[in-house]
Design brief:
By secondary structure, the chain is an alpha+beta fold. It has a domain at 2-82 and 135-161: Aminomethyltransferase beta-barrel domains (Alpha-Beta Plaits), CATH 3.30.70.1400. It has helices at 2-5, 59-73, 122-125, 133-142, 180-189, 238-246; strands at 19-24, 30-38, 53-57, 87-92, 104-107, 116-121, 194-201, 211-214, 217-226, 231-237, 251-253, 256-261. The protein is globular.
Length: 277
Amino acid sequence: MGFLGGLLTCAVDASPRARYGALLTPQGKIIADFFLCREDATGPGDHGEGQGFWLDVARTVAEVLLKRLSLYKLRAKVAVADVSAKFGVLAGWNVPLPHVTGGIAIPDPRFAPMGWRFIAPADRLAGHADAAAAEYERHRIALAIPQGGRDFGYGDAFPHEAGMDQLGGVDFDKGCYVGQEVVSRMEHRGSARTRIGALSFHGKAPSEAQEIKAGEKIIGRVGSVDAENGRAIAILRLDRLDDARSEKLALRAGDSILHAEKPGWANYAFPKMGTDA
């Protein structure tokens, strides 16, 4: 616990509760975000590594995270291993947990409506998924839950900019961790101007990574898009969004007209936009 506790933004303790957290650069930028939970003796602990912690992390940054943790390990008596060849993750919402032996079930710690996640040997999960990945994406986008690499950039975004301070990803009461000074300063000064926003649109859908403008001023960038349901996620400069509201300027991404609103899980101040902007 001490090894991970001194590195990660989330609490690392004996609690069975799952955590959402990240490993940061010394400058406070997100290297990787993930779900962390304790390995239970009755769970999928048959890979011979003994009790420890699971990190449920996106494949796109799994190798980077593994290398960075291995670098920090030095002489600590811990082992870090990639077991993705043996184990898989099942995600579900609005349905009961499947009956799978040797697995660990965790509620998604970010936002209850996201549902649950289930870690188990991959061969035991086969056949339990009855939804396509695209359905999960529509569910996530409808709730404006950001995803690294699409809604914020790994190595580029601070936790506040990715909504981690709102989604339980940062424990502001714990001791030091890598990048903590920068994150704590942003929290106490309330200096985060760039935030996650939920977008809705009618007609033509914007493209992912497209600039969002109010007049000629760039105020943000489009992230994940659900064209079928007219929903998207954006990372926005709230001060510029407030200027757009004051000037009654429409938000556009190319030929798409957008409406921005505060995500249901957020409690930061968010400019209230008119229905035509």
